[in-house]
Automatic annotation (TrEMBL):
Predominant place of localization: membrane
Keywords: Lipoprotein, Membrane, Palmitate, Signal
InterPro entries to which the protein is assigned, alphabetical: Lipoprotein_NlpA
Signal sequence annotation: 1-24
Topology within the bilayer: Lipid-anchor
Similarity annotation: Belongs to the NlpA lipoprotein family.
PROSITE patterns given in the database record: PROKAR_LIPOPROTEIN
Cellular component, GO, one term: membrane
Localisation: Membrane
The protein, known as: BmpB, outer membrane lipoprotein
Length: 277
């Protein structure tokens, strides 16, 4: 029975080899990064997420951005499970979307405040706006309300203070210049400026169009992150409520809320995006 010992050796080697291969496959599987899909609007914040990904290297997590042209479509994609997180909207917009469409979303981190200012290609100051002029504002409820508040602060109109951060055109108490305040897609407002006196749109869109949201504005409403009036307009990272305690998503939020991200935002964007942590 001399063949038994060689046969046993072959079987042992084969078994060890199989175990080794299985272990190797498990190790490879363990080394595969976790991909987190984050929905954004435009590409103005890509730089921020590059740094977040650097912070996540030791966690073996990679954020993949998916860009949309409009926030409403971004929220639809998240509600349908195509995205893990979103990072483009402020509390007021999020709450309005939840109220209007029944989304089960939860903010898991506050990030920054972005300005919403007045722009024009026809005048250099709001004092030059004439009676009967047309001013464009965003056509979504929350940013339209915020734009009306900006016009109020600029002294062009007076809105009912009891309407909080969601006034509408019907809440305008005084409009001495009889301005025509019309709503338009925020992404098109800058292109429409040659046809109107002025317009108000989001800072990210302004930056994507090669303009400075503060320096190129004819009226700039100074932002104080500690002022409660700006709380509804703080941007947030959002998860589906069922995932609000997801450990992976918590690590993504933590990687965002780091000093190196804050410093990079301040250096890259100046006062365009103002961190709140």
């Amino acid at each position: 029975m001399k063949f038994i010992k060689p046969l046993f050796s072959i079987l042992l080697i084969t078994a060890l080899s199989a175990c080794s291969t299985a272990t190797a496959k498990e190790d490879v599987k363990k080394d595969e990064p976790t991909i987190v899909k984050v929905g954004v609007v435009g590409d103005s914040t890509n730089f921020i997420w590059d740094i977040v990904n650097e912070n996540l290297k030791d966690e073996n997590i990679i954020v993949e951005l998916q860009s949309f042209s409009d926030g409403t479509y971004t929220n639809i994609a998240q509600s349908e499970g195509e995205l893990d997180l979103t990072s483009f909207q402020h509390h007021a917009f999020l709450n309005q979307e939840i109220n209007d469409k029944g989304y089960d979303f939860t903010a898991i981190a506050d990030t920054y405040v972005a300005p919403l200012n007045i722009f024009s290609e026809k005048v250099e100051s709001v004092s030059e706006i004439k009676e009967g002029d047309t001013i464009l504002i965003p056509n979504n409820v929350t940013n339209a309300g915020r734009a009306l508040i900006v016009l109020d602060r600029a002294g062009l109109i007076t809105v009912d203070p009891e309407k909080g951060n969601l006034p509408t055109n019907s809440d305008i108490l005084e409009n001495p210049l009889k301005l025509k305040i019309e709503e338009a897609d925020p992404a098109t407002i800058l292109q429409l400026l040659p046809d109107v006196a002025a317009g108000i749109t989001n800072a990210g869109i302004v930056q994507d169009n090669g303009k400075d949201p503060i320096e190129d504005a004819i009226f700039n409403l100074e932002i104080d992150p500690d002022d409660e009036a700006f709380a509804p307009y703080i941007n947030v990272i959002v998860a589906r409520t069922e995932d609000k305690d997801n450990e992976i998503y918590a690590k993504v939020a933590k990687a965002y809320l780091q000093d190196n991200v804050k410093e990079a935002i301040t250096k890259e964007y100046g006062n365009v995006f103002i961190p709140v942590w």
